[in-house]
Write a structure and sequence with these properties.
This protein is an alpha/beta fold. It has helices spanning 12-26, 48-61, 82-95, 110-123, 152-160, 168-184; strands at residues 2-7, 30-37, 69-73, 99-102, 129-132, 144-147, 193-198. The protein binds zinc ion.
Length: 229
């Protein structure tokens, strides 16, 4: 199976989708990654110099998964031109994945929202799309949780490759989000889970068949139960 992750900025795939992609990779699937914007506005330095550094950081952050494809669309202005939609569509169709993972249209950043809407607009009728958690989980109702505890260390390593972004704050952020999502499933303290949502539309009503196993069901208030409660 071909799985394609599309992130708006050079560090988004690592922060929001790394654990699930690692599971797909481990299961022997082909993982592809596309980074939509050049990230030229996210840092102390800006412009082409920052874009180059961030591209190298993304290559090294994603080295265990795939060599990213850079669309180099303008940071902060994604979707402003009709051409952006065309470029995104062409690049998705070149890969023709079985599943796309991208941002939620409720996410905080304008580029994340635009990318989500563009992706849905151009291919949702023939490729199923799984939406990743929003920053801090705001306005996001997960329908699928996956245990990424075994990939926590490699996710952390990947996020820390983004040196221009003062990355420790993003490690703190994903640890908070992923441990909260794990606790929602009553997984024991020290567990990490990424949360996703899937919106059914014809002919993709139920895509569990192509998703890795969800978190184990753990009852609570049971003696000797190894859970959060
Ligand atoms: Zn971003």
């Amino acid at each position: 199976m071909k799985v394609l992750a599309i992130g708006a900025h050079p560090d988004d795939i690592e922060i929001f989708m790394y654990g699930l992609l690692s599971i797909y990779k481990k299961e022997g699937h082909e993982v592809f990654t596309i980074i939509a914007t050049d990230g030229a506005k996210g840092g102390a330095i800006t412009g082409k110099k920052l874009a180059r550094e961030r591209a190298n950081e993304a290559i090294s952050g994603l080295e265990k998964l795939s060599l990213p494809i850079f669309l180099n669309l303008p940071d902060g202005e994604l979707g402003d031109e009709l051409e952006h939609k065309k470029i995104i569509k062409e690049n998705i169709l070149k890969i023709m994945p079985d599943l796309i993972i991208t941002h939620s249209e409720n996410d905080y950043h304008a580029d994340h929202k635009s990318l989500s809407l563009i992706t849905k607009g151009v291919v949702s009728h023939y490729i199923p799309i799984l939406y990743c958690d929003t920053l801090m989980g705001i306005n996001f109702n997960p329908t699928y949780y996956v245990d990424i505890t075994n990939y926590h260390d490699s996710k952390k390593e990947a996020v820390l490759k983004h040196k221009t972004q003062k990355p420790q704050r993003f490690v703190d952020l994903f640890e908070l989000m992923n441990s909260y999502r794990a606790a929602q499933c009553n997984a024991p303290k020290g567990s990490y889970s990424e949360a996703y949502s899937f919106i059914p539309s014809f002919p993709f009503l139920d895509i569990r068949e192509i998703l890795p196993a969800p978190l184990k069901l753990r009852l609570f208030h049971i003696e000797n139960q190894h859970g959060f409660l």
